[in-house]
Design goal:
Elements lengths: L1 E3 L7 E16 L2 E14 L3 E5 L3 E7 L22 E7 L3 E5 L15 E8 L13 E11 L18 E5 L3 E7 L2 E14 L2
Amino acid sequence: GAALSPIEIPDVNVKELGQPQTTEEMIDGKPYIVSIKDYVLFPQKSGPLTIPSQTFVLQLLDPNKRNRDPFASFGFRNSMFQPTKNLRLTTDAHKLNVLAIPSKYKGPWIPATQLELSQSFSSDNQRSTYETGDIIQRKITINAANLLGNQLPNLSGQFTAKGLSAYPKTADFSSYDDQGTVVGQRIENIEYVANN
């Protein structure tokens, strides 16, 4: 068996990307099984950040210990009786500095590598004229690459319109893995009431 210690860092959201990948490689003429786990880190504050060392513990067959398999003399082999030894591997810690939001920047901070904004209206809100008291339902969807859904700011206040009273509902958040890239999504549902 094998176990990798979890990544836990104060003030950092850690998300594992996809499933671990296992391959076989030849290193110095010897076959090795290589296991890869990808993570993405989302610091919640600026300043020094230390990614702690990770510990990988695994069990190896120990050729120096006598096999205690009671079935071996009958021509059967059971792995649970094979002598093993524990091997403990540790990575180095890694230090970096998280930059602060530029002081001159004003507005919502969205440090995404790609951003998509879309909107839709309910099917009964497709007409061009409305009367006082009519309700208009609007759905705004924000997708951001390399951000979590709960990191996306509330933009409902940015979508006001003259002659309409806005009533935003609680936003929905989600995050998903898109071929090795974390994509965060925020969905805003807003009801507008025509008031003149």
